[in-house]
Structures are given as structure tokens and as C-alpha cells.
UniProtKB/TrEMBL annotation:
Keyword Oxidoreductase: yes
GO MF term set: oxidoreductase activity
Coiled coil regions, renumbered to chain: none
Top-rank taxon, per record: Bacteria
Organism annotation: Emergencia timonensis
Keywords in alphabetical order: Oxidoreductase
Domain FAD/NAD(P)-binding: 4-298
Pfam (any one): Pyr_redox_2
InterPro entries named in the record: FAD/NAD-bd_sf, FAD/NAD-binding_dom, Metab_Enz_Cyan_OpOx_G3PDH
Protein name: FAD-dependent oxidoreductase
PANTHER family registered for this protein in UniProt: ANAEROBIC GLYCEROL-3-PHOSPHATE DEHYDROGENASE SUBUNIT B
Length: 419
């Protein structure tokens, strides 16, 4: 049975960065990827906007992934594509993995694991749309794969449900390829995507955005023939009398992403309900010693630059953990007021004496606001924001070098007028 210091599961941007980072720390690394090629979803992202923070230039998703693939090929990382981790067991001193490959079955041992499994899209079934299931109902990611990888147009008259970033980007992409996007329908009272995508993908192409509206029924047998949309109230319940039938041959669903954490759950790792990702500390280590999580498997990020950054940190921490016996640690919790949708990481080692990055999202759109962090009753950090929106993730870095973490940490938001 082959043995490794670090095994990374997932060959997307987080997994690539984690494997490279662990290899640079002189760990023996295995990278497992279920697809034939490395790069994750970036392989089908031909639009630019990637790498602005990391490389200081606009790259397509493909170009961004290629830079990491070229770098990992220069390392000693063992790469297994078309490989599934079908089972993981926690054993003395590490983990035993059962791998299913195109050439058979294999068991390997690893001292530490990094879960970089990314996320998946919610489907039409998960938002409970009434009607049949004809051809022409796709997730935004599936539509992107059809157009950018297969070179096939999924339809000519399209309705998009949800204003997530992938859906907005596909509204523009389909328009450029000659399809007619009849409208984007969002059940919430404000868009779910980044502001720049609202303007660059919808406003610039005169694609209508209908807020507080949703699709309640699909029509058609073998092929989609139309959808029924209607207005919804504040509880997102359909408002009777507002129904409208829209003839179309394609419905594209962009209603959110869910971190892939089935493997984490089989190991008994605590999962946070708010993020659907593992509960992690400042080094991205989960509640099971030796198992780390990064990228969109931990929480859904806005920018791939942050995904890669978390992978690098997880890789460095996992290689360091592999070189020493597992020891138990004391932790303090990181909590937030009800104004926060979530905060990551959600706990810190009590011995933390370095700078820690926190990522958070506001639960609702806010105007001028001050975010404060308390250690017990003592305020240790504050930052003022001109405004916060739920789709836009925020990052703050706080130095704990001179602080003793004897109490839990608590984030709050306060209106500027209250200061």
C-alpha cells in the first residue's frame, strides 16, 4: 500500500494550489481528480476576470488553471485522474483511502487529507418547479459546458431562473452566440450576483431582470415549450393573479451552489449549516485532526484568487501536520451577530499568535456600517464599510500576535450613526 504525507482530493483551483504548496514544503503528495483533466470548472470558463488579485492581469478561467497545471507538472506530486475516492477510513496515524480507477482498485495510506472537492449547482428539482421534465431544462453550469466546451447551443429562446453569477454570465454568452434571452427572473427582491456582472451581462445587452419573480411551472413533453412565471411576496410565495406564460425552448437554472462534502460527512466532520462546509480553524483544519478543507468545499467564494489562496494555506498546514504527531488543541469559537450570513473560520486555536484572515457575508444589504470584533468584552478590531451586499464576500485580516485568546470572539455590525 503506497503511503503519502498529504493526499489532496479534487484537482480544481483549490486542489492544485494545495498540492503545489504541500510539495514545496517537501511533503510526499498525491492529487486525486475524478475527471480526465485537471482544472475543475475553470476548464469551461472562457470569460475573463480571473487572476486580477493573484497575477495582476485579466485571465480567462482556462488560462488561470493552465498556470497552476504548468506549475504542478514541475513538482513531484503524483497525479491520478479519472480516480474516485470511494471510501475513507480514519486509522491509527492517518487515513486509508479506497480508490476506484479506470484500471482497477487501489488502497493508499495518507497521514493527512485535504478536501478540495468544490461545489455543485442546485437543480430545478431542488427548487420544486411544477410540471414535466422535458429536454431544455439545464443548470447554468451545464449550459456553459454545452456552449464553451461542446460548441453546442442548448436553445434559441431562453429564460433564466435566478440571478447568480453563472446565470448572468450565461445570459451574455448565449446572447453573443445568437440565442434570445427573454429575461432573468429572481425570486429575491435584489440580485444574487455581483454588481459588475449585473451591468456587464444584463444592462449592456438589454436583457431584462425581473426581481421578486419566479418560475412556477414548466410546460412541454419531449421538449420545453414554455414556462409560467409570477410575482412573489416577501416570503417568496406566489401572488395569485400575476401569472404569465412565456413561450421558450430553454430554461436555465442558476439558483445557488452547494459545497460537495459527502466525504467530509463520512469522516464525522462537523458541517456548518450556514455554509454547508466543514467547521474549520485558522489553518483550515476541520474538527477531525489531519483533515483540511479549502476552496468552495469550505464556503462558496466570489473570486478564484481566494480559492487558490485557501488551498495554499491548507497545503502548507497539512504538510506541517504530517511531520508531527497529532495533538489535541484548545479552541475559542468565532461567532457573529444575526447581521452576518456566515463567518469563516469559525474557531481559532487558543495558541494562535499570527495574522488570520476572516471571510464573511452580510445577511442583508446594508448602508454605511462598521464591523467590530470583540474578544470577550474588549473591542480588538473595527473596519468601516460604505455598504455591504450578501452576494459580495468581504475579507478582513486581524493580527493576534499580542492577544491571549481566553474567551470567544464575536463579530458585530453597527450603524455609523451609533458611533
Amino acid at each position: 500500500m503506497n503511503s503519502y504525507d498529504v493526499t489532496v482530493i479534487g484537482g480544481g483551483p483549490a486542489g492544485l494550489a494545495a498540492a503545489i504548496s504541500a510539495s514545496k514544503a517537501e511533503a510526499k503528495v498525491l492529487l486525486i481528480e475524478r475527471e480526465e483533466r485537471l482544472g475543475g470548472v475553470l476548464k469551461q470558463c472562457i470569460h475573463d476576470g480571473f487572476g486580477l488579485i493573484r497575477f495582476g492581469e485579466k485571465l480567462s478561467g482556462c488560462e488561470y488553471a493552465c498556470r497552476f497545471i504548468e506549475e504542478i507538472e514541475k513538482t513531484d506530486v503524483e497525479i491520478r485522474t479519472l480516480t474516485f475516492a470511494s471510501q475513507i477510513s480514519n486509522i491509527s496515524g492517518g487515513f486509508e483511502l479506497s480508490l476506484t480507477q479506470n484500471n482497477g482498485y487501489e488502497r493508499v495510506f495518507s497521514k493527512t487529507l485535504i478536501l478540495a472537492t468544490g461545489c455543485r449547482e442546485r437543480t430545478a428539482k431542488q427548487v420544486a418547479i411544477h410540471g414535466t421534465r422535458p429536454a431544455g431544462v439545464l443548470t447554468a453550469g451545464a449550459a456553459q459546458y454545452f456552449v464553451n466546451v461542446l460548441g453546442q447551443l442548448p436553445g434559441k429562446n431562453c429564460v433564466i431562473l435566478g440571478s447568480g453569477d453563472i446565470g448572468l454570465i450565461m445570459a451574455r454568452r448565449l446572447t453573443l452566440e445568437g440565442a434570445k434571452v427573454l429575461g432573468v427572473y429572481e425570486a429575491k427582491s435584489e440580485p444574487s450576483g455581483l454588481s459588475r456582472n449585473i451591468y456587464q451581462c444584463l444592462v449592456d445587452f438589454d436583457i431584462p431582470l425581473h426581481l421578486s419573480h419566479t418560475v412556477i411551472e414548466v410546460h412541454g413533453r419531449e421538449r420545453l415549450s414554455g414556462v409560467t412565471v409570477c410575482a412573489v411576496d416577501q416570503r417568496m410565495q406566489p401572488i395569485s393573479g400575476t401569472e404569465e406564460y412565456i413561450p421558450c425552448d430553454t430554461l436555465i437554472v442558476s439558483v445557488g451552489l452547494i459545497p460537495e462534502n459527502e466525504l467530509a460527512e463520512t469522516l464525522g466532520i462537523a458541517i456548518l449549516p450556514k455554509t454547508k462546509g466543514p467547521l474549520c480553524d485558522q489553518d483550515y483544519q476541520t474538527t477531525v485532526a489531519g483533515v483540511f478543507s479549502c476552496g468552495n468545499a469550505l464556503h462558496v467564494n466570489d473570486l478564484v484568487d481566494y480559492v487558490s489562496e485557501s488551498g495554499e494555506k491548507a497545503g502548507a498546514a497539512a504538510s506541517k501536520q504530517a511531520a508531527r504527531p497529532f495533538t489535541s488543541s484548545n479552541y475559542v469559537s468565532v461567532k457573529g451577530s444575526s447581521d452576518f450570513a456566515y463567518i469563516v473560520p469559525s474557531r481559532l486555536e487558543a495558541e494562535t499568535n499570527k495574522k488570520v484572515q476572516f471571510f464573511f457575508r452580510s445577511k442583508a444589504t446594508r448602508g454605511t456600517i462598521t464591523v467590530k470584533l470583540y474578544l470577550g468584552n474588549e473591542e480588538i478590531f473595527r473596519k468601516k464599510y460604505g455598504g455591504l451586499r450578501p452576494p459580495e464576500m468581504e475579507k478582513v485580516e486581524i493580527d493576534f500576535a499580542q492577544l491571549e485568546l481566553k474567551e470567544d470572539l464575536y463579530f458585530v455590525m453597527e450603524e455609523a450613526a451609533h458611533e
